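Order emerges. As here.
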Amino acid sequence: MTLEFKPIELFGGAITADFPNGYLDVSNIREVPDHQEIYLDASGFSSIIIEIAERVTQPPTDEEALKFHFEDIVDDKDTSKIWHTDLAHLPRFPPDTPCYILLATTTPPPPSDDSAARPLTPTFTAVILALIRLPLQSTDIVVTVNIPHIPGQQEPLNANVNFEEGNFGSLVEEGMRTRGEILKSLEVKDWGLFGPAEE
């Protein structure tokens, strides 16, 4: 399936980015915290979350802050694994704005007897995350694309998804492209969103 993207206004238009067609604003159906924008795939189970968070200063390094934000969204009961981290470019941000990305998976615990029959429980969820660091605004922007893997629902069971072998499956590949398009198009229209800049 070919992804097509369209511009979306976030946080009242203070930030804009290109999202895939078919993602719906969750705030139209339920309350969403003011510091988050959440969009769900209308034809699947994937989601995109943009979060404005207070800048993490402990742990002190950017790489550790990336892992901190990832661990902050992982359920304590899940098993997680980070497969890849890297740097990314933000063409519509000030030069040298730090941006770090990771690809990880979270795996829920084995189902108990009373939940074994639930058909839509994912075997794992791919977490495709980006961390944008804005030191002058004391802000971290966290972009997360979540791709639950539910066998038989989105892909054939013989898709042989295997992260160890680098076979991520078509949905995760689309999720990584989605993150790339968001970072390429992400633009702050109103820096006042973050409050006064630090001297």
Strands lie at 5-10, 15-20, 23-25, 36-41, 47-54, 79-87, 99-107, 124-134, 139-149, 187-188. The two ends are 47 Å apart (CA to CA).
